[in-house]
Structure formats: C-alpha cells, structure tokens
Amino acid sequence: MMKQLLNNLADITAHREHTRLERSVISALHELTLVSQVRVLEIFSLREELFVQEKILFRDGQLCEPIEHHHDDAKEPLSQYPAIQTCIREHKSAHNDMVGTEHVLWLPVWLHGKINTCLEITNTKPFDDAALEIIGGIFKVYCNYKSLLDYSERDALTGLFNRKTFDDQFSRNALSIAPNESHHLDSNERRHHENIKAHWLAVVDIDHFKQVNDQFGHLYGDEVLILMANILRASFRSQDRIFRFGGEEFVILLRSTTFDDANRIFDRFRQNVENYQFPQVGKVTVSLGFVGISHETPVVILGHADQALYHAKKNGRNRICFYDDLVTSGVLSSEISTNDTVEFF
User: Which of 23, 26, 51, 86 is the least crowded, having the fewest Cβ atoms under 10 Å away?
Assistant: First the structure.
C-alpha cells in the first residue's frame, strides 16, 4: 500500500496541466480506495448565477470520454446540487450524504475564496475511516498542487489561462492535435465534408475597449473583462480551452467540432456578448477571427486567425470571420507578411 501510495503521489505531481492532474488524482483514488465513480465538476458563474458542468467522469474502472455536447446542453444550475450549495454557504471542505442507495462525498476545491471545481466521489457502501483518510490526503495534495499550477497558468484578473500557458501548451501540442482535414478545402468542397470534425482556433477582441476605459475608468474596464471571461466559460465546453492574451484580446481553442458547428458556436458567443447588459457600461460587442488547426506552425495558425480578426474589425466589428473564406473570396492573401507576424507576437 505504501509503495502504491508513493507511486500515485509521484504521478500526481508530475503533471503541469490541470486535466492530466485531475485524471491522475481520479486514478489514485480508485486504485487506493476502489470507489465506484468519481466526477470532476466545473463550477462557473453567468449573469450572477452559478452553474455546474461535468468535466471528467470515471466509472466502472475506466475514464469515460466526454459527451459530445455543447455548453448550453451540458451546464446545470447549481440549485440541482444542494450538497455543493451547502459547502458554499457554510464554507465547508467536504460534504458526505446518501443519494438513493449510494454514498456520495463532495470535495470542493476552493481557490481565491471561491469554488471553481468539485470532486464528486460515489460508492456503493459507506466510506470507512481508512478510506476517508486516504481520500482526504490525496485531495489535500491535489488542492495544493492545483493552486500552484493555477498561480503560474492563470491570468490574475479573469482566472482564464494566460498567454504563457498558451505558448507552452499549443506550441508543444499543435502538431500532435488531429489536423483539420477540411482546412485546405474551398467552400464548395467543404460542404461535402460538413461532418468532418476538426479543431479550430479563434482570436477575439473587445470592440472599442479603449473607449470603455476612457469613459468609465479602468475599474469598470476590469469588470467588463471579468464578465467577458464568464461569458466565454459559459459559451464553450469544458474540453475547449480559453486564454487571455492580455489587454482585451482572448484566444479560444475549440476541439473536435464540425465547421458548421464551430461557426455556429462562435457566432452564438458573439450574440451572448451582444445581448449581455454590462453594469454601467451597457452594450459591449466583440469581433472574432477563426481558422482550422492544420499542420502549419503555431505562428502561422495564429497569424491567420489574427488576419481574420483584423478583417472583422475593419469591416464593421461585432462579427466573426473565417480565414479560409476570406482567402477563397480573394479578400486575403494566404501568405502572412513578416511585419504582420512580428506585430502579432
């Protein structure tokens, strides 16, 4: 048991990415306590209401692939999780309860005074003292290590992943991500490949953000950025990745989605922002440029998305543009100038 515990702890602390860390923790909990199910639940706010979304599920001895659904279908109101509500209200570090015939242990992860994740551990029999001691020890290691990762990976204001994390993760993994097979097809050919799932990268910019800061002050500007981060979280799935690049610019990595769905999801996010009433500031809009992730280098992929964003901002703002369509129509050249790349990076 001691050797197994040490091996699990070594594996947990070997990761530098949250999802891999969480999978390692789930694996350790199962191996050491043989619990029947573990879920990692993501908790986020939208329009001052808290929602819960399943991020990882371990059941029947194996990790289950995330269900292919969009965020609107995946999120559930926090009111459906009274145990988590109790933890928040009483600032509890754990809650043990019976749900039907099963025993469930909720372990909220508190970061910066707020719950952003909760482990839901389910077992067919009561948790004995030995199991609770092991679970508690693993969970403390997880929380401490998650806090360290969070500090180095996250933007301090919005809580989104920062630019450094994007550079580390995307530059390292871009070529290993399944390429967008329809990336180099023209618009007519793409219609015949609409069911092909691919990965997409979008660059988002808040329209006229300087005017917000100039007219209302930087405190309200910061509030817009924080609320924008909440809308981003609520508009995309847990397996997608959202980054703040600094200022009013964000990057989205949308995973395993058809072109039609990607276009719809990005435009739905644009509409979510347009329909949101920002306190004091009122209406805010965003422009977005996106591109399929191909075998090009990360610099080129980002440069293409940035070109599409620039076209969206130059042609009316509050719109989304797809890079390949702009190239096919002759609006953009498929080459990125050195000056464009240097300016973007």
Answer: 86
